[in-house]
Predict the 3D structure of the following.
Amino acid sequence: MRSRATTRERLLEAMDRRARVSHRRLITELCTDLVGVDSPLELRFAKDVVEAHQLVRPLRQVPFFFARLDCYWPWFGLAVELDGERYHKDRRFRDMERDNFSAAELGIETLRYGWADVVGRPCDVAAQIAAVLHRKGWSGRLARCPRCRTASAA
């Protein structure tokens, strides 16, 4: 879909015509739930971190110089980058350059999370993001989700 070779609608229609489709539920969620969610990791972040804890919603897949920011709160100067399982070591250096430029020149703070963070400890991730958002002026309140284990996430 990102390359515009197909659309969400065409993909859903094609799945409807087939009795068996691997990962049907996940693909359906990716196609229907959230605009700007491009991967299973981004879907879990949107649902288990942002929505479950009622964080202010970020903009998604924001063009940023020569790349895109996965999640961006421009009104708070915060970006979150989600590094999936297939993340390559050489990309880390390019991303480090972008993060450093963003911080030094534009005042954008970048937090990075991987699959183990988002899936294994979404409440802690939400608490970290909320702490940065509060420091930068967010007056909202972090909600507890059913998975919250610690009082620090309340």
Summary: Residues 1-32 form one domain. DSSP finds six helices and four strands in the chain.
